[in-house]
Amino acid sequence: MEFGINSPVLFVLAGIIVAVVLAQSVFFLLKAWKRAKELGMSTDKLKRIARTAAIFTIAPAIAIVISVITLSKDLGLPLPWLRLSVVGNLSYETVAATNAESAMGLTFGKVAGLSATQYVTIAGVMTLSILVGIWLVPLIGKKLLTGVINLEKRDKKWAEIFQNSMFIGMISAFIGFVFCDVAGAFKGDYTGLIPVCIFFISAIVMVVCGLLLKKTGKRWIMDYALPISLIIGMAAAIPITAWLS
Amino acid sequence: MKKEMTYIDQVHSFGRKWNIFVMIMLLAYPIATGIIFKTGPDWHGFALGLVATAPMYWAVGIVETITYVPMLGAGGSYLSFVTGNISNLKLPVALNALEQADVKASSEEGEVISTISIAVSSIVTTIIIIIGVLLIRPLTPVLNSPALTPAFAQMVPALFGALAVVFVSKNIKIAIAPMILMLILFIAVPALNAGTVGIMVPVGVLFTLGVSRLMYKKGML
Fold first, then answer.
1. Contact A202 B175 (CB under 8 A)
2. What's A99's DSSP letter?
3. Min Cα separation A237/chain B (Å)
């Protein structure tokens, strides 16, 4: 069989794996849904949560499709489709593909017509380098979560602070990232202010949603506050980028 | 008599099997490609590529597992570490769902809510990527258009602006010190950027836990 980066057999291979991952998500969804009902949660509440999660996911998922398009220039469609549906993200996949390509004397973004050997090499590097989480969660996940439960049994208040601190720690790192290029403004480069403006616009929209919720008591505002803030923030990036670039 | 498994025990039991199965399937992709096209890897390139990539991502993978599992819960962890995009999608989805349902992450209600939101998000993501792959020709010029590119480039600031309002306002005492530290670090250290923010998440988490513990001991929380 003649090799091509978009060979139909590669689509079949990637498709089988994506189908398995889809099945895993459906399996866990049904299992958690059933348990939620046993715990006395209403179908209406669960549907609202599922609907919000689905709507919120649309914009980030489209961003992932853009990543697939970016990587497909070098690697064809099946491999980026698989990599970004399972485990991966754009920054990791780009680094892994760049390293594997440069190890064979190729330049990322300028590759035309990979051979089967090169393709297998790149796919191997991309796969092996990212697998840690998949096997480590089965290995230590239960111990970690049992530790959290034991913490709660020992000191309930501290357990709650512990959990909130973890969330805040993660959010703080991303807030720092939003401001990482602001120093450029002192040298006349205002592009570093773009993410800062978007951050505050999205935050203001969220505050407005909160105030509207308090004033009107309409539950749908709470359900859609995050997707609305995300979309308005992203939409605002179009004129703000044009202004500050 | 055999003890009946709790819901959480079942999640761990099934989660382990699913994750190991998916791992084998993932490894099978390059192997099957090699068998079908009757070739092996370029071992020299493979070794060089792996040495350049794997050590950093293995270290990051270990730290991410320890950091994210307590936040994602059992079902959410097994799913998130298979489907990826944790910090920019799965964790925000779960946090928002917990907030929406008004349940604690460490409770069983929190566990099922986190799992449901992450599972739905994974399914929607997978389906949208499939649609994107099927419609790649007509979609490419639209999604790569100069008009839309800035919107997707600013997704992370838009996401964390909204999340920060919800969580920082509720935990203002806890949030001040880590936010100041991260702002100083990211502004002062040029190496800290989009590519390294993932590495800074565990740093932020550990620092926040340390400060919170200190404040808690001193009766400030």
1. no
2. H
3. 5
How does pLDDT run across B166-175, given as a tens digit for each residue? 889 989 999 9
Q: Domain limits at A201?
A: 179-244
Q: State the complex-level ipTM.
A: 0.89
B79 to chain A, minimum CA–CA distance in Å? 7
Residue A39 lies in a domain: yes
pLDDT tens track for B117-139? 999 999 999 999 999 999 998 99
Is A155 inside any structural domain? no
Token pair belonging to A166: 């973890």
pLDDT at A107: 84
Half-sphere exposure in the Cβ direction for B49 (13 Å, CA):
35
- Best residue in A77, A114, A168, A209 for a mutation probing chain B (most B CBs within 10 Å): A168
- Looking at residue A74, its pLDDT comes to 87
Separation between Cα atoms, residue B164 and residue A86, nearest integer Å: 28
B221, amino acid identity? L
B53: contact with A, CB 8 A cutoff: yes
Domain count, chain A: 2
The pLDDT of residue B2 is: 59
- Whole-angstrom distance, CA of residue A209 vs CA of residue A218: 10
CB contact under 8 A, B154 and A68: no
Q: Tell whether A113 and A194 lie within a shared domain.
A: no
CA torsion, points A15, A18, A19, A25, in degrees to nearest 10?
A: -170
List of chain A residues with pLDDT < 50: none
Specify whether A18 is located in the same domain as A78. yes
Residue B1's pLDDT is 55
End residue of a domain, out of A68, A102, A130: A130
Only one residue has tokens 């006395």, namely A40
Q: Among A95, A110, A130, give the residue marking a domain's end.
A: A130
For residues A159 and B86, the answer to whether their CB atoms sit within 8 Å is no
Do A31 and A95 lie in a common domain? yes
Q: What is the tens place of the pLDDT at every residue in A25-40?
A: 999 999 999 999 999 9
